[in-house]
Amino acid sequence: MEEEVEKKTDIYVNMLQKSAEYCTDERITVEVKIIAGVPTKKIVLQEAIAYKAACVVLDRKLRRDLKFYLEHIPCKVALIQNSLSVDVLRLGRAIKRDVLEQNFSYSVSRPVELVPFAEQNNSSEDQSIVSCGSYFGSTSFDLSQIR
Predict the structure, then answer these.
(1) Domain-by-domain residue ranges, the chain?
(2) 119: which of 38, 73, 82, 128 lies 20 to 30 Å off by Cα?
(3) Among the listed residues 24, 62, 18, 10, the one whose alpha carbon sits nearest the alpha carbon of residue 40
(4) Pairing state of beta strands 31-36 and 128-132?
(5) Tens of pLDDT along 103-137?
(6) pLDDT given for residue 95 in this prediction
(7) What is the rounded CA–CA span in Å between residue 23 and residue 143?
(8) Which helix (H) or strand (E) holds 109?
(9) What is the largest CA-CA distance in the chain?
């Protein structure tokens, strides 16, 4: 399992290289974090809370637990549709704000580093967008839709 998580992390880091360049222009950092464990919905919630996310973008496969996410995730919630469009489902705060214990079995996190370039001003706000998926796949969306 650990080898597979490491391999998928590397694949996503490489896949997001070009997106990271665009995001850097917008003063957004990109990090890939793969967590192996269950239940998925509690891991998603735990990560949203830990990163103090401004927005959580849920993969379309996570639709089955949408009610749970809308009740518990403490920030903006968006869902990727089958057409790969992004629908913002909630702009405000969650109804329930439970604190969860960490119970995943393995986690790998790596920043998506850019090709060397001139140093940028690091005065951006500390906010995160957490994108959550339940399977290996790629998705693209316009960041302006979720701000």
Answers:
(1) 2-115+124-136
(2) 128
(3) 62
(4) unpaired
(5) 556 777 877 877 554 444 444 445 555 566 554 44
(6) 63
(7) 9
(8) strand 106-111
(9) 44
Look up residue 145 and give its amino acid: Q
Question: Which residues, at least 6 apart from 48, have a Cβ–Cβ distance to it below 8 Å?
Answer: 56, 73, 74, 75, 130
Q: What angle is formed at CA 49 by the lines to CA 46 and CA 55, rounded to 5 degrees?
A: 115
DSSP state of 83: T
Helices vs strands, H then E, count in the chain: 4, 6
Q: How many Å apart are CA 39 and CA 17, to the nearest integer?
A: 29
Question: What are the structure tokens assigned to 72, written together?
Answer: 């518990």
Which pair of structure tokens corresponds to residue 87?
A: 């629908």
Q: Which residue, chain included where needed, has tokens 């909630």?
A: 90
What is the per-residue DSSP string for 38-99?
S-HHHHHHHHHHHTTEEEEEE-GGGGGGHHHHHHH--SEEEEE-TTS-EEEEE-S--S----
Alpha-carbon gap, residue 5 to 106, rounded angstroms: 8
